[in-house]
Design a protein that fits this description.
Elements (H helix, E strand, L loop, with lengths): L2 E5 L4 H14 L6 E8 L5 H12 L9 E8 L2 H12 L3 E6 L12 H8 L4 E5 L9 E5 L11 H11 L2 E8 L9 H14 L3 E8 L3 H12 L3 E4 L5 E2 L2 E2 L3 H9 L4 E3 L2
Parallel strand pairs: 1-2, 1-4, 2-3, 4-5, 6-7, 6-9, 7-8, 9-12
Antiparallel strand pairs: 5-12, 10-11
Length: 259
């Protein structure tokens, strides 16, 4: 991992995401952090650049990754995708205020981005504090892992922090609990890619998959939740990222979307 992009708008959520990014990349000075400010209407670019410079001035330290600022006019997703190609962005790290569980029809800038952008995204809830990364829960569906390259991001994070990875699969009924041919294939893939950082896999039953994941997080004190959206399908069809959207809105644990 060499290049990390942080969409930034001076909100508390984006400032918290930047704080997390600094901790996430400490002692990795070879990593470049790109702070991206997107605007649609005309602005005073010099004023924005000065404000960004003031924000990053407090992070000047030899052990902190170099922070570069980018100010662009346009829409968030096209701008990020263009920068991904231009700069070789490996990860987008994005803050979110989130939403309360039970709120209906809510969509945030971050949840929309995660749903539409096809690249690895690390979502940092505004309430996430006290950086630590020793345990990662990867929630995996019952479909076979098609894009194994997505696991390289998870492996990179695990290696740098020595974090163990627990695999969690939530089933809606008892009849689906147990190893299928897809489960066996995924098990072999995970053990191969995650090396010594693979810990174990749990199968649990809950009619509400989100609730099952959240309950597991509460009892296992995870530092990060990860999801591979393409393994979570409904009757063989993609659910249009609904579970990922819900988790993005409701999680209080940093969420790594491996897309």
């Amino acid at each position: 991992m060499k290049n990390v992009l942080i969409p930034f708008n001076f909100s508390r959520a984006s400032i918290n995401a930047l704080d997390y990014a600094i901790e996430f990349t400490t002692k990795e000075p070879s990593i470049s952090l790109y702070l991206l400010y997107i605007y649609e209407d005309d602005i005073n670019q010099e004023e924005i650049q000065n404000k960004l410079a003031k924000v990053i001035s407090k992070y000047r330290d030899p052990l902190v990754a170099k922070i570069k600022t980018i100010v662009r006019k346009g829409k968030l997703i096209p701008s990020v995708l263009n920068l991904q190609e231009e700069l070789g962005i490996d990860l987008v790290l994005m803050g979110t205020k989130g939403a309360e569980i039970g709120e209906v029809g809510i969509a945030t800038r971050t949840s929309k981005f995660v749903k539409e952008a096809n690249l690895p995204v690390l979502v940092i809830p505004e309430k996430a504090r006290n950086f630590q990364l020793k345990k990662i829960i990867l929630t995996l569906g019952r479909e076979k892992i098609a894009d194994k390259d997505a696991l390289y991001t998870l492996l990179d994070v695990s290696r740098r922090f020595g974090a163990e990875v627990h695999i969690l699969t939530i089933n809606k009924d008892k009849t689906s609990i147990g190893y299928s041919e897809e489960d066996e294939s995924n098990e072999n893939t995970l053990q191969y890619f995650l090396e010594m950082f693979y810990s174990h896999r749990s199968f649990l039953e809950n009619e509400d998959i989100e609730k099952g994941i959240m309950e597991y997080l509460d009892t296992h004190e995870a530092d990060m939740l990860a999801i591979m959206p393409n393994t979570h399908l409904e009757n063989g069809n993609a659910s249009e990222g609904e579970l990922t959207r819900i988790l993005t809105l409701h999680t209080q644990t940093p969420l790594l979307v491996l897309d």
